[in-house]
Amino acid sequence: MAGLQLVTPATSPMGPFFGLPWQQEAIHDNIYTPRKYQVELLEAAIEHNTIVCLNTGSGKTFIADVFPAVSVVQQAAAVRTHSDLQVGEYTDVKETSSWTHQRWREEIMENQVLVMTCHIFLHILRNKFLPLSKINLVVFDDCHLAITDHPYCDIMKLFEGCPGSPRILGLTASILNGKCDPSELEHKIQNLERILRSNAETATDLVVLDRYASQPREVVLDCGPYTDKSGLSSCLQAELDDALYFLSDCNFCVGREDRDPTFISKQVLGDCRAVLQVLGPWCADKAAGIMVRELQKYIKHEQEELSRKFLLFTDTILRKVHALCEEHFSPASLDLKFVTPKVLRLLEILHEYKPFERQQFESVEWYNNRNQDNYVSWSDSEDEDEDEEVEAKERPEANFPSPFTNILCGIIFVERRYTAVVLNRLIKEAGKQDPELAYISSNFITGHSIGKNQPRNKQMEVEFRKQEEVLRKFRAHETNLLIATSIVEEGVDIPKCNLVVRFDLPAEYRSYVQSKGRARAPVSNYIMLADSERTRTFEDDLTTYKAIEKILRNKCSKTVEVSEFEVEQVLDDDDVLPPYVLHSEDGGPRVTINTAIGHINRYCARLPSDPFTHLAPKCKTAERQDERFQSTLYLPINSPLRGPTMSCARLAEKAVALLCCEKLHKIGELDDHLMPVGKETVKYEEELDLHDEEETNVPGRPGSTKRRQCYPKAIPECLRDSYAVSQQTYYLYVIGMVLTTPLPDELNFRRRKLYPPEDTTRCFGILTAKPIPRVRRGPRPVTISIELQKSGFALDGAQLDLITRLHQYVFSHILRLEKPALEFKPTLADSAYCVLPLNVVGDSHILDMDFMFMEDIERSEARTGIPTTQYTKQNPFTFKLEDYQDAVIIPRYRNFDQPHRFYVADVYTDLTPLSKFPSPEYETFAEYYKTKYNLDLSNLNQPLLDVDHTSSRLNLLTPRHLNQKGKALPLSSAEKRKAKWESLQNKQILVPELCAIHPIPASLWRKAVCLPSILYRLHCLLTAEELRAQTASEAGVGAQTLPPDFRCPTLTQHMSS
């Protein structure tokens, strides 16, 4: 390529496979992965006086939220929001200057944080209203003002000679704002450190850290001017300029910019013009098409007539742009005459990364031995012969491309969302037309789209899911090129790239260094594309950026210069400590002192976390009295591992990492390939066909059926050792149930009668030896409450035994939760309490333990089996309606081992055993029972029972008509449901004589079915309450003990997909 020499993996002198991106994950090898810069700076501020140098809008705000700033009232609001500290704010110098010593003493006693202007602070120090020795921390916002004639200087003079001076935290953004002069930067930092008696700190992500890894080759490319031979670009520019001028000429008095009816129109047309200028007319046409589709949604939902008219105006302009483009080229195919030189230059760069076929490589020996160098193969098999090799070429590409079909791993940084979207489409079109670009699998990732009236929560959730999927594919190398806005400059875990292109030049130092830091593969290029008029000025900016980087290196506490002695040792220190070897044979997996840090970083990167959590190890190195060094390693779960003492700090850090790798492998966190055990490992092992269950025993994905993950279940303290035993006093709680949201008619398919649980007095209660705290009520169709009924009473041994037997009966026989491997030993259980029936006893109208009912259950023949009662013509069955109105019945002629239980839904007095049977096989019900079961009925005039199965569904936390994601299940039409359930064939009809009545009534049985869900939710809420109380105690947030009359608000439930 003319004017550009790129070193790609294929042209590297280290060999064609050196530095392939999937060999080099986004893992630091010689230093521990830097933690989030806010946390890093916070720790520095805790250890010593610190000046925090960060850009506006980055970490400075976070730190200010943690430490109250002595500047403006807004900071006081931030402290109140993020802590429970008492905050006083003082802004009026005239008012506070008249306050007496007593008034200031009252303010100091009442508040823990004082937020004030520098003049007020200087006043109270000079008048000794508040001695410096009584202050723990002083925070100076905009502390760079201290190097000018400012009250900060006078305040710091008062620190001289003061014993026990407070900790100082200075916050400044202006030092790194925009394009600062390097010579001024160094001078400012030195002066600030001297005046504020502090160390200037910046974050490790502001410098390219890994001094031992090769840095990317930096290239600034002059792409030349765009020649508009057709005049289309000028015509489109004029149309968009005129439209934007018209919109800017429309003046509306609005409080906020986004309430301006022209706000969206200006934003859309401005973005379209930017795409035209940066990418050319072909891309502007594609952007206009996307924007028209988005505008239709806004037009449809816009309520304000004026705003709607401006949206329609914008829609017309965009359609005009499309019409003008159609006159010059076909939108169906890419026409490179209508793109800018930047785009052409980018396509040339991508040509350089064209893959090679397998036979073009001469380094067969390196390929055969690649696994000895910790190379992770994405090809099909390592032992295939030549015939299989030929067949592999003809097979379609797998999800994970082999190194022979994909050398590129790159990012293109752009400024605007639409630029990323359209540039991705252009590259895909180019791949269709140019076979040499067909290897590119591109995607884009951006921020959120525009709009003021869209549903932000839902939109952000959908956008987040899309972005996570894009990043997943890029990490897995299913995608080899990512077009991105600044969203992936920092804070996103992606692989080390061998190509990073700044399509739009970095506007400031932070943007430059963070995008450059993505090019971390051993052979990589960092290319900045510039227009002719920007090339020279940007080269000056680049010189400035490099000078700033040099200064910041010296100011970053994590990049202290190492001595030449240490550097020499780093190059050859594998023999300092013996490696950890899994297998003694040659080429077996091993960890050496030089590779250990990389393994630790990789392990931490694979630990489960949410998108907002950045898991990284923390290593502290200390010099001992014998002038040797020792490091302590803290994993994200804060498990400290102390390593052996070494001659230098670098070796100490590596040695503790080696020790940690050995321990992680022994506890199963690293597999026998020394890879973190997780879904990525399982996925590539499946690609390598390592999951042959007959030959290997590689574990499945964590949490799957092949590899279940066990964890200690949290048990609320109030339920531990709380089982009722003799010679104690007890607490009795009522489990109250109230039907608050009846089942709607359209979901009551069988048109059954609803039975509100509050209509019957008999219910369940909890007997425990410890009090249960109040918990919130849940958002269920049935509202549950746990209320204390009585306490401080005693029970004798016989009563406790009866309660225990009844408790076991409910869960073993009614709910059938007892399994063969389970033993009923309530006094040994982690969570132990009794569930027992309650009822209004005697004339008291107060719920209490119903011992008579419990004894009746124990005496009942139908309690655990099927009664053997026999009826004859001489002793016929007598039907009593009241016996069946709230009954659970058991057929006595089938399923003797596990009898079926039915609720009686209705009594058909118009049907008898002589009525016509629904099936043509039998004439009557009596004939059916005689033929099938050889049963003779003694009473042929008894009515028949319409019954429903008792529910075996014990998880009632998700409504029956919703799936687990909360989506409504499909319903058949009302006519079909009505016809189905009115047919006698679809009903369960039983004969009373052939059924036994269970001692548990149906009203109580329905409540028993709810017990597993109620008790599960109770455990969760009690655990949450313990966490709340612990937080209140240890962090001082909220009340540790709630007042007796306190009622928690009812929980709300939001189910979404």
Which labels suit this protein?
single chain, about 1050 residues, alpha/beta, 6-stranded parallel beta sheet, 5-stranded antiparallel beta sheet, about 35% helix, extended
Instruction: Report the average pLDDT across residues.
Output: 76
Helix content: 25-40%
Q: Count of DSSP E strands?
A: 27
Oligomer: single chain
Q: Order of strands side by side in the largest beta sheet? A: 7-12-11-8-10-9
Find the structural class using helix and strand composition: alpha/beta
Number of DSSP helices?
Answer: 28
N- to C-terminal separation? Answer: 50 Å
How many strands, what sense, and barrel or not for the largest sheet? Answer: 6 strands, parallel
**Bulk shape:** extended
* Rg calc: 38 Å
Strand-residue fraction?
A: 5-15%
Topology:
Layout: H1 37-47, E1 50-53, H2 60-66, H3 73-82, E2 87-90, H4 93-96, H5 101-110, E3 113-116, H6 118-126, E4 137-141, H7 151-157, E5 167-172, H8 182-196, E6 199-201, E7 217-222, H9 232-248, H10 263-279, H11 281-301, H12 305-326, H13 341-351, H14 364-368, H15 386-394, E8 410-413, H16 417-433, E9 442-445, H17 456-475, E10 481-484, E11 499-502, H18 509-516, E12 525-530, H19 532-555, H20 564-571, E13 580-581, E14 590-591, H21 596-605, E15 618-623, E16 629-634, E17 640-642, H22 649-666, H23 679-687, E18 730-739, E19 763-768, E20 782-793, H24 797-814, E21 834-840, E22 847-849, H25 851-859, E23 888-891, E24 902-908, H26 925-933, E25 944-949, H27 974-982, E26 988-990, E27 995-997, H28 1002-1035
Parallel strand pairs: 1-5, 1-6, 2-3, 4-5, 7-12, 8-10, 8-11, 9-10, 11-12
Antiparallel strand pairs: 13-14, 15-16, 16-17, 18-19, 18-20, 19-21, 21-22, 23-24, 23-27, 24-25, 25-26
Helix pairs in contact: 6-7, 9-10, 9-12, 10-11, 10-12, 10-16, 11-12, 11-16, 21-22, 24-25
